[in-house]
Fold this protein.
Amino acid sequence: MTATPIPRTLYLTNTEIETSIIDELPPGRQPIQTTVLPPSQRRAAYDLIRREVAQGRQAYIVLPLIEASEQLEDIRSAIEEHQRLQTQVFAHFRVGLLHGQMTAAEKDAAITAFRDRQSDILVATTVVEVGVDVPNATVMAIEHADRFGLAQLHQLRGRVGRGDAKSYCLLISGSKTETAQERLGVLAQSQDGFYIAERDFQLRGKGSDEGTEQSGHAGFAIEDRLPDEAARLEVVQKARVAAAEILQEDPTLQKFPSLQAEYERREQRWQGGAIFT
């Protein structure tokens, strides 16, 4: 099962396995207003959080790092931001902290406190990506949003919009690259996981068919000659139908010795742990 737009997963579900699709949101889910903000407008994000918390709502602030890094000096981290936000920005609110280096008991305590409204704002890493259900939370602010994949951003945004109130997702990014802006624009344009998955697939590629990489292209000769991912996917889908017809006619491939030899060669390499080329 998958609820996230990962290109490799999309590729597999379109080529190798049968699928059942649920294209409806759970009852009561609200549209989420998604906005891309430059760091210079961070104050506007804080103002929105203040307004929502003052009305009894709650908010998430997500960061890509747990602690500050010397190699990534310009990237904000959860521990340092928690301290700064609590003392300098949201001094009149209760700011919680949640990250992956905390013990299981500490994580449970932080989530329970937020769910029980003992904290107003939860500063966290992507540990909140799944399994956190707080319908009262209406703002998701994601710092350095360009450093996250579309799958993560889509999942993180799904932490809000779970109640009756209007919800907001703020993607804060200082990246000026065309790719980053295009990726974040996909989230701002749509909440349709299928559309996001297709765009993610087009932007990142499907990754290695037999390896572990979840982005890029496999480099097959036939794919290199096709103009775009849509054309590649169409060829792969046709190949799947043709393969099914061949196997139905001759499951052992005795009538197709060249195919049988190629299959055996690849199977041996797979059993030996090699990546297909």
Remarks:
- The chain has a mean pLDDT of 83.
- The beta strands are 32-37, 58-62, 95-98, 121-124, 137-143, 167-172.
- The chain has ten helices and six strands.
- The longest strand covers residues 137-143.
